[in-house]
């Protein structure tokens, strides 16, 4: 009997050890903890395996010792495997060289050079007073001046937002990578703070006079995000003679909370758009300081992706932003529509949520709510990721601004990716994967799609649904949430007689590809510096160079075209076609035209019902 048990051990235990080892490999990648703990765990695992073999002939109480020790060590190392939270450096190489002091209107700043010493980076420059204490939920105030030289070699903390979940982030990466590419170089989390109204500047070393300025607004559903993410690092554009400024702004409950008491105490009668007002304040700062850092205050292009693009469309519609920029770039979101599908809500809805938050934190006044610590307030159960019609930053519906010819941009470049909604749709229906049997039920989850609209969509997509209902549904939602809003924005802008350049990004790769945000690493010139170098090849580098050229040309003169580039005709000239940016670069037919018509009908019916 003892002999059989030992034989079973030598067969079963190696298999079990391999499984346990694989689980540990996966677990520590998911946790993104410190690398030394992973190495320590692997050492203990090896000792555990050796001890199990050495004790195989001993009594059970001795054989359990390595199991107990291994379980205790694993529990401790896993509990400690949390990424550190740090200030992020403005550059990634060790011991960066500091720049000379740069004088701004509020004081002197000192940044760092990039590794090739061709670009200066100034990070964490305040453009407004910290919006804390009595300044929480107030219009942003001018920053205080400072004495001496301000250290601007590190990014400021990102705006207060829910803490990142490393396990969820890794799972998203695995889905995006279409496989598992473990990475045991552990990465720290960026610190976060309610004191976050800071911006960053990248400027070329050689040219420092009257340069065009790109003002970039990060995405994140108006509830998350950072100015420090590598995909839109400004170094590459600075190499091409563009000064890049990107800006942090209040997010979530700090940026878009609304309450009538706040409107009453505001000298402008505003509430609900604090994050948008921050962006306008930062544009005013750029206008005031452009000459100091070598920029042309009269040649500013605003740009943004996702919620940043929604913000760009809002800035194009805001009377407060008039004269603060010249051109606009919008990537993968817009609120220019009769009924924007996201990042916009009515004041009634905004204040209703505000009242619920007051109740949630047992506060009877704004003064009490202002005293709730930011770390607690950020955990609110209620979403605050939408702008609203506040009568100050936005005085009329954005689509009406365009109808009245009062939009602020003189030229518009905008577009979308072909699989925009996948990253949102797939997690939602993870336990009920879309198929031919349930696609109608899933379409009904879109509140403006009634049975008649669903019938028309099902008829239009009958062939695609029969072939692949999962992909068909994702495409329909991509069009509704992201692509149709850009169609509306383009049409509205054309009606005001400004040049409009519209694109569709179709380049697949080994990472985000054509998912939401996949284009950014290309158009801001960071593919060659990508952490996931395995995901890209020469075709990606070539496309990135083309897209950077288009973006830089547009930033400089309002026209993306230039020598050696495929011609990008205006949408004004080529109604019904868009510029494809992918393996092929050139005009293609807009394949969603018929679905636009059905969505327009759905919106009109829903608005009529509400009235």
- Chain-averaged pLDDT: 94
Per DSSP E runs of 2 or more residues, the count of β-strands stands at: 20
Q: Kindly report how far apart the N and C termini lie.
A: 82 Å
Contiguous low-pLDDT stretches (5 residues minimum) are none
User: How many domains, as an integer?
Assistant: 3
**What percent of residues adopt helix (DSSP H or I)?**
40-55%
Portion in beta strands: 5-15%
CATH-assigned fold name of the largest domain? Rossmann fold
Structural class: alpha/beta
CA-based shape: globular
Q: Kindly provide the name of the CATH class of the largest domain.
A: Alpha Beta
> Architecture of the largest domain in CATH?
3-Layer(aba) Sandwich
Question: With helices defined by DSSP (H or I, 4 residues minimum), what is the helix count?
Answer: 20
CATH superfamily of the largest domain: Alpha/Beta hydrolase fold, catalytic domain
Q: What is the topology?
A:
Elements: H1 2-31, H2 35-54, H3 60-80, E1 85-86, E2 102-104, E3 107-110, E4 112-113, E5 119-126, E6 149-151, E7 158-159, H4 166-176, E8 189-190, E9 192-193, E10 198-204, E11 211-217, H5 235-239, E12 243-247, H6 252-256, H7 260-265, H8 274-289, E13 295-305, H9 307-317, E14 327-331, E15 344-345, H10 347-360, H11 366-370, H12 374-377, E16 387-388, H13 398-403, E17 412-417, H14 422-428, H15 439-443, H16 451-460, H17 462-494, E18 500-505, H18 520-523, H19 538-557, E19 577-581, E20 585-589, H20 593-610
Parallel strand pairs: 1-8, 3-6, 7-9, 11-12, 11-13, 13-14, 14-17, 15-16, 17-18, 18-19
Antiparallel strand pairs: 2-3, 4-5, 5-10, 10-12, 19-20
Helix pairs in contact: 1-2, 2-3, 16-17, 16-20
